Amino acid sequence: MVFYTLLKAGVIIKIPELVIYYSIVNIVLFLLMLIDKIKAKKKSRRIAEKTLLLWGVIGGAIGGLLGSKIFHHKTQKRYFALIFTISIIAHIILLIYIFYF
Fold it and tell me: Which of 46, 60, 64, 90 would bridge 25 by S-S if both were Cys, CB 3.0 to 4.6 A apart?
C-alpha cells in the first residue's frame, strides 16, 4: 500500500518517491566527496565547496557526513559538519511537518 501526503501547495508526494529522492542526493554527495578527495590528492581542479554544501542542503547531508568520515575529507573545515548537521535536522523537521500537520 502506498501512503500519500498532501502538501499545502496541493502537491501529492508518495513516500517511496521521497525515499528515492533522498537516496539519490545522498549517493551523489557521497560520490562527490570521493571525487573531490581524489582530485585533492592529484592536485587537480576541485569541486567547489559551495557545490558540496548545496548538495548537503538539498537533502544529501547524510551522504556528505559519511563521505567526510570515510574518505577523511573536509574534516578540518568544521562548517561542513555544522551545515550538514543543521541540514539533517531541518529535513527531519520538514518531514515531520509534512506528514503530521
Answer: 60
